[in-house]
Amino acid sequence: MAASSSRIVTKVLQSADGTPIYAEAVGDASKPSVVLVHGFAVSSIAFDGIFGEGDEGRDSWLDEVYLVRYDTRGHGRSGKPADPASWESRRLAEDFDAVVKGFGMSRPFVACWSLGGLTITDILSNNSPDYLSGAILLAGYPSSTAVYKLAAPPALAMIPPFRNTTSIETLQATAQDFLAAFTAPGSTPLPFILQQALLGNVLSLPRGCMEHILMRTQDETHLWNAGKSGLPMLAVNGTEDPLVDGAASAKMLQSEWKDITIHSVKGAGHMPFWEKPAEVREIMLSFVRRVVRSNTSPL
Q1: For residue 14, what are the β-bridge partners?
Q2: Strand partners, 203
Q3: φ, ψ for residue 296 (rounded to 5)?
Q4: Matching SUPFAM superfamilies, A to Z (predicted)?
Q5: Rounded to the nearest 5°, which phi and psi values hold at 6?
Q6: Residue 265: domain span
Q7: What's phi and psi for 136, nearest 5 deg?
Q8: 207-215 and 153-163 helices, crossing angle to 10°
């Protein structure tokens, strides 16, 4: 099937604890798989620019990879459990497992944006490193502990008002500030329709889920062990990101990760795959090509 004629396949999958997980895939399943994981309070619609039929550059993705995206629990069209047990790290890993099994993937790449980067620690805490072909951080935090080391001051300042359960006006104002920080200061903002869709995601996220997402903890042991064992990682940061300290991220990852590739995208903010789509696409695909080539080369 030609990439341009590919249609999005939609599934509602069941995680191990019964939570429904909404997921989509597009492209040729025989190609290397890349699973896209969105960030805090939004949903997989953040990747519409990559998935949408007719969008510029979509075929360039599908010529080389099979794309999958899903709404993480609590977000979008997936289930929204409120009990603390539903937010243990293993539950988030089981959601990813359900997506992998639901689309018949083997050793996918996982590409996580922003707070979605915590999913990498969830996966590696519950699976061996060879479960993945590689990990990609897109302006992302690799673990819950890293959030407080890598978040820029504006990001940290948003946590208390997001946790405020008494004022809808505070939530609305914080949500709008949050979305405004997705792009580099002074650059073109997100299209109005996408802004409104993402705002709807934020405001429809149950407050109990929001609390669990912001305050959950993780054991980083397996994350850093995977880095030392040679799991390939790509980190992409925007030089004008208001929410993540790209320099601090690079320093942390370079000190802990054996096979690490770091790219700083000039002029991009917190959403580099939307702001600089062609550049980020080539960075990601080059990483995938390199890893696939090394995995298939004869010893």
Answers
A1: 20
A2: none
A3: -105, -5
A4: alpha/beta-Hydrolases (SSF53474)
A5: -65, 140
A6: 3-296
A7: -125, 125
A8: 140
Nearest to 123 by CA among 132, 113, 115: 132
Q: What residues have CB less than 8 Å from 225, skipping those under 6 apart?
A: 124, 129
**Can you tell me the distance from the alpha carbon of 36 to that of 263, in angstroms, rounded to the nearest whole number?**
18
Judge if pTM exceeds 0.90.
yes
Task: Tally the domains of the chain.
Answer: 1
Tens of each residue's pLDDT in the chain, 299 residues: 444 447 899 999 999 999 999 999 999 999 999 999 999 999 999 999 898 766 667 888 999 999 999 999 999 999 999 999 999 999 999 999 999 999 999 999 999 999 999 999 999 999 999 999 999 999 999 999 999 999 999 999 999 999 988 899 999 999 999 999 999 999 989 999 999 999 999 999 999 999 999 999 999 999 999 999 999 999 999 999 999 999 999 999 999 999 999 999 999 999 999 999 999 999 999 999 999 999 876 54
Task: Write down the pLDDT at residue 3.
Answer: 46
Q: What is the domain-level CATH number for residue 203?
A: 3.40.50.1820
- Tokens 């994350």 locate to 223
